[in-house]
C-alpha cells in the first residue's frame, strides 16, 4: 500500500506534464497585421515577431547622420503638388536636412546605413518572397545601382533599390494577363529591383515620390525618363503602381508595363 502511493503520484504528475507540453506546443499563431506565423509561447519567437511587426508596420529607426539627403521637406508639399519632383529644385548636399520628411541615398561605404537598409530589405524580401542576395549592385562601391530610403519622423518608412540595366534585359508585360510579349527586347535604362512602403504609410504617394527621386539620382548627373524605368516581376500592388506610374497603352488597346529579367 505504502509503496503504491508514490508510484501513483509520479504517474499522475507525468500525465499532467505531458498535457501541458501539448497545450504549449499548439500555440502557434499568425499575426493578422504583419502575417508572421510564430509560437506565442517562445520568448525568442515573441521578440522576433515584435521586431518584425514594428518594422513592417512603421519602418525602421533612422539616424539623421545616415545617407545623403537628395530631397528635403518632401512631406510639406500637398500630394497633388508632389509629382513630378523633377521640375522642383533639388538640394543635393552632404549634410542632412532639418525637415522631418526627406529622401536619402545610401552610401555604399557607410557601414551603419548599409546595415540598417539591409535589415529593411530582409523584411521586404520576406514580404515579396524574393531572393535575399540581390543587393550587391547598391552595397558595393563599384556596383551598378543605388538604394534610397524615405525618412519620416526619424524612421525609414520606405525603400527602393535601382539597378542600371545592360541592354537585352527589357521586356513588355501585358498588365491584364501578366504575360511577356514575344520577341520584343526594348532597351530600358533603370530597373526597379525592390520597392516597399511600410504598411501604415501606403497610399500617400510615397512610392511614386521615391521613384521620381531615384530616377534623378541613380546615375550621377543624369535624370532617367520614367518610361525608361522597368519593373522586376511586379506584385499585385506593384502592378497597380506600375500601371499608374509608367504603363503604356499599346495600339491593340492593351496596357503594357515596362519590365526586365
Ligand atoms: C506597391 C507599393 C510600393 C505602393 O506604395 P504606395 O506608397 O502606397 O504607392 P503610391 O501611393 O505612390 O501609389 C501611386 C498610385 O499607384 C496606384 N497604386 C499603388 N498601390 C496600389 C494598390 N495597392 N491598389 C491600388 N492602386 C495602387 C494608385 O493609383 C496610386 O495613386 P492614387 O493613390 O492617387 O490612386 C506598396 O503597396 C508596397 O510596399 N507593397 C508591398 C511591396 C510590393 O508589392 N512592392 C512592389 C514590388 S513590384
Ligand atoms: Zn505582427
From TrEMBL:
GO molecular function, a single term: chromatin binding
Keyword field: Acyltransferase, Cell cycle, Metal-binding, Nucleus, Transferase, Zinc, Zinc-finger
Localization per Swiss-Prot or TrEMBL: Nucleus
Domain called N-acetyltransferase: residue spans: 104-261
InterPro entries to which the protein is assigned, alphabetical: AcTrfase_ESCO_Znf_dom, Acyl_CoA_acyltransferase, ESCO_Acetyltransf_dom, GNAT_dom
Recorded superkingdom: Eukaryota
Gene Ontology cellular-component terms listed: chromatin; nuclear replication fork
One annotated GO biological process: establishment of mitotic sister chromatid cohesion
Cross-referenced Pfam families: Acetyltransf_13, zf-C2H2_3
Entry's family note: Belongs to the acetyltransferase family. ECO subfamily.
Protein name as annotated: N-acetyltransferase ECO1
Amino acid at each position: 500500500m505504502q509503496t503504491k502511493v508514490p508510484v501513483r503520484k509520479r504517474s499522475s504528475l507525468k500525465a499532467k506534464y505531458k498535457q501541458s507540453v501539448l497545450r504549449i506546443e499548439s500555440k502557434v499563431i499568425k499575426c493578422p497585421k504583419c502575417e508572421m506565423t510564430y509560437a506565442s509561447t517562445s520568448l525568442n519567437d515573441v521578440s522576433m515577431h515584435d521586431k518584425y511587426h514594428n518594422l513592417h508596420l512603421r519602418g525602421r529607426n533612422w539616424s539623421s547622420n545616415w545617407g545623403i539627403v537628395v530631397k528635403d521637406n518632401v512631406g510639406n508639399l500637398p500630394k497633388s503638388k508632389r509629382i513630378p519632383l523633377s521640375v522642383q529644385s533639388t538640394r543635393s548636399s552632404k549634410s542632412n536636412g532639418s525637415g522631418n520628411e526627406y529622401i536619402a541615398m545610401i552610401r555604399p561605404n557607410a557601414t551603419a546605413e548599409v546595415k540598417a537598409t539591409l535589415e529593411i530589405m530582409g523584411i521586404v524580401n520576406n514580404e515579396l518572397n524574393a531572393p535575399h542576395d540581390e543587393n550587391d549592385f547598391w552595397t558595393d562601391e563599384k556596383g551598378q545601382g543605388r538604394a534610397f530610403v524615405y525618412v519620416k519622423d526619424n524612421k525609414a518608412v520606405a525603400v527602393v533599390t535601382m539597378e542600371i540595366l545592360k541592354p537585352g534585359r527589357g521586356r513588355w508585360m501585358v498588365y491584364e494577363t501578366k504575360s511577356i510579349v514575344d520577341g520584343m527586347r526594348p532597351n530600358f535604362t533603370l530597373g526597379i529591383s525592390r520597392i516597399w512602403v511600410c504598411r501604415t504609410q501606403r497610399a500617400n504617394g510615397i512610392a511614386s515620390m521615391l521613384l521620381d527621386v531615384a530616377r534623378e539620382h541613380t546615375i550621377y548627373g543624369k535624370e532617367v525618363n520614367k518610361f525608361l524605368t522597368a519593373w522586376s516581376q511586379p506584385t499585385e500592388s506593384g502592378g497597380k503602381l506600375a500601371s499608374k506610374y509608367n504603363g503604356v497603352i499599346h495600339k491593340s488597346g492593351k496596357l503594357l508595363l515596362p519590365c526586365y529579367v
